[in-house]
Specification:
97 residues, 33% helix, five-stranded antiparallel sheet
Length: 97
């Protein structure tokens, strides 16, 4: 990103690690411009950042997926499927070593 493209509060992404967050502050250090992201409170060179779009939707989708997995596992643990699975093991712990 160029210095003219960034603004406080805009969403940005550091593609090397996938870190995404809103820009909290912009700072000049030894001739380079850095932006602090709220998700890590770390400074990133602005020429290494890209605009982030749609991250809120992605985070919501991840939360919904996690809730679905938890619900499915709770139903499985409460049903007879888990009990059947436990009956079919010999209670040994094989380390393979």
């Amino acid at each position: 990103m160029l210095a003219e493209e960034i603004a406080l509060g805009m969403s940005a992404r550091y593609p090397r690690t996938g870190t995404t967050g809103k820009i909290l502050r912009i700072e000049q250090i030894r001739g380079d411009t850095f932006a602090e992201l709220d998700s890590t409170n770390l400074l990133y060179r602005i020429d290494q950042l890209i605009p982030a779009t749609g991250t809120e939707k992605t985070e919501k989708a991840l939360v919904e997926d996690a809730k679905n997995v938890i619900t499915r596992e709770r139903e499985y643990a409460a049903g007879s499927g888990l009990q059947e699975a436990l009956k079919n093991i010999d209670q040994s712990c094989e380390g393979g070593g």
